[in-house]
Amino acid sequence: MSDLISIRDLLIQRNGRDALAINSLDIKLGETLAIVGPNGAGKSTLLLALAHLIKPVHGEIAFHGKPISQMDDLEYRRKISFVFQDPLLMDMTVENNIALGLKFRGTNKDETHMRVIRWSKAMGVDSLLGRRAGQLSGGEAQRVSLARAFVLDPELLLMDEPFSAVDPPTRAQLLKDLSNLLSHDHRTTMIVTHNLKEAAQIGDRVAVIINGELK
């Protein structure tokens, strides 16, 4: 199986200090890589670098073998989706929130509707499409956030502790549902978590980052 992401000799600095150093890391097409480590270890920095929101001091991240530094930023970012700790939903209906990225991309109405229905069902929020974002529970909001990411059909899905803001029972069910979805969807995914048990449950592989270094 070929690699979607290849990282070589990467050094990221934040506020003038070394924040992350990775000699070599390859992520295969369709793989889910879980990243664990303590607070401040550099896990989120890795995701931001992969999203090309932080640029390295040296080294390279390649996407399908092409350095992302040589790609158009908009072209590259359209190939990825990012799910944050907080859902960051807009003050509009669930349906419009899920469809927002597609509208920015100029996707026609029929295609947008079809994709919204598909992914709202996959994330279990199809009964909430007419509800406004402010009326959702924390778990419902994060499911909408996940649907909004998947609806864009990204080649790379980046998730930064997407379950940290919800209660334990909701977290357990979200993790189970997402694990099942990824096992069938085979979408290349990187997910950051503090929880080693969760990492083992959802990841095909687990990477450990401590003090800014990949172990």
Characterize the largest beta sheet: strand count, sense, and whether it forms a barrel: 6 strands, mixed
Q: Bin the helical content.
A: 25-40%
Overall spatial form: globular
Instruction: Specify the structural class.
Output: alpha/beta
Gyration radius from CA atoms, angstroms: 17 Å
Distance between the termini: 23 Å
**N-to-C series of helices and strands:** EEEHEEHEHHHEHEHEE
Structure description:
With 215 residues, this protein is α/β, with parallel strands linked by helices. It is built from 7 helices and 10 strands. The protein has a 6-stranded mixed beta sheet, with helices on both faces. A 4-stranded antiparallel beta sheet has the order 2-1-4-5, covered by helices on one side. A hairpin with a 2-residue loop joins strand 9 and strand 10. Helix 3 crosses helix 4. The longest helix is centred in the C-terminal third of the chain and has 18 residues. The radius of gyration is 17 Å and the shape is globular. The two termini are 23 Å apart. The model has no long low-confidence stretch (mean pLDDT 94).
Would you spell out the secondary-structure blueprint of this structure?
Layout (H helix, E strand, L loop, with lengths): L2 E12 L2 E12 L3 E5 L6 H8 L7 E6 L2 E2 L5 H5 L2 E4 L10 H11 L4 H14 L15 H13 L5 E5 L7 H18 L2 E5 L3 H7 L2 E6 L2 E2 L1
Helix pairs in contact: 3-4, 3-5, 4-5
Keywords, separated by commas or semicolons:
215 residues; alpha/beta; six-stranded mixed β-sheet; 35% helix; globular
